[in-house]
Design goal:
The structure holds two protein chains of two kinds. Chain A is 38% helix and 25% strand. By secondary structure, chain A is an alpha/beta fold. Chain A has a domain of 75 residues. Chain A is globular. Chain B has 13 helices and one strand. Chain B is globular. The longest helix of chain B has 30 residues. Helices cover 74% and strands 2% of the residues of chain B. Classes of the chains: A alpha/beta, B mainly alpha. At the A-B interface, helix 2, strand 4, strand 5 and helix 3 of A face strand 1, helix 1, helix 2, helix 6 and helix 13 of B.
Amino acid sequence: MTITLSHISKEFVHRGRARRPLYRDVIRLFGGYYTPEQTVALDGVTLDIPSGSRVAIVGANGAGKSTLLRIIAGILQPSRGTAAVRGRVACFFEAGAGAAPALRVYDNVFLYGAIVGLTRREIVCSMDEILDFAELREHADARIEQLSFGMVQRLFFAIMAQTMKLGKADVFLFDEWFAGVDLRYQQKGEELIRRLPLARRIVMYASHDLELLHRLCSTAVYLSGGRVRMFADTATVVERYKTDVQTGG
Amino acid sequence: MEAQTLGGMSQADESRRRGTVELAFLLWQMTRAAFLAEEKNSVLGLLWHFLNPLAMTAVLYVTISSIGRRGAIDQYPLFILVGVIHFNFFANATSRAAEGMRQSRSLVLNTTVPLEMLVLRQVCIEGLTLAIELVLVCLLISVAGGGLGAAALGYGVVIVGLFMLTFGTGLLLSTVVVFITDVTYVWNMATRMLFFLTPIFYSTEEITSAPLRIVTAVNPLAGAITMARETLLYGRVAALWHTAAVVIAPLAVLALGWGVFQRFKGRIPDYI
């Protein structure tokens, strides 16, 4: 299982982000001042990540962390460059993406489990374990919308944890997944990720929580302006990032 | 699995790939969740699936009968009802599908769920509604002493054809709407026009206008609704050419929709 990114660039055309009526573009075109507005999210990123790695991704807002993870997941296509990902990918970018707030916790375990790739049998067999890990067994019949944000995060983290335990993927990608959960549960989640056998796997984690990244990951990628500024051991990368933030570099 | 992305080539195809059983389970869960969520947010819930087509049928029946244009159609209220439920399935499912990608932004950008499933889910939600309405129709046909004999088996062809037509149109619309949002409005207007251009409250034999005859002949929905009535309501076996037409035209629409969707789906996450 390896991830090999070679000169990956990603540009977003603004029209996709800021919609406007077509006639405005036509007026601009005839006015002679039409140029498609683009944002460069990634610019020539080259990385080679071997199996058995826990890799942190650090960088300021807009540095390209989420875009990089989405390209590795195959959700976004690069504008230029080559991405080769060996192994099945499981991504956890938004807790409960596609969940049904009006339905019960129990129903959402089935729904979100199916979304992240668990089979019916696996969910049935894992239901108790998921509810226990989420500490929501007594809330199994409550609707998701009745739970607090942290409880919802715990539920979806528990489902994700089950996909990890069942070895449903070789590459696990996380984007700020501990946001909203209390410290005790965060430690529980960290422990689970740390205990995951890494022999054939890759875990990548993007976050602004540098302490967490330091504890979880042995290596780190520092992104700035869509470029890789540094790819080294986490301590060195975090130190460099902190220095850059302080000096405005 | 090896996923290779070369410039604009699709790694998405690889990372979103799942087994058939896995896909069926995912489709069922997504459809069920959306269907139940809508039911829970409604006061009358499932009853709407009976009330809506019945109310529409009553309005059409009273209006057409009162202006004396009813013609000599056997079991006219059921004739309208069969037309209404099949038309509603097509119109509602395609309208839902048109918004399928934009309404599923979170799933598109944060999960590896195959994008086709997001369109298929919208069709299946309306498919559940059609199934509930069909129970009502079959009950009413039985009470009225109509068809529902061996010929009703031919109705399976109608379902297959209608499903392909709706899914194909949905794929096409969901792709186009991502890039040109206004198509949603155009499609809403088009389905309203289609309601009058499809034999829902009149039969094809009654059409005297040559242009409308041509429109009806090329309208795959007209063929499906006519065959649904023949098999379900009147207990007649449809002609072979009619049966073939009910499947072949929708198959062409599905092939077109699938082709366009595959061509552009890699760019969808960039634009929603």
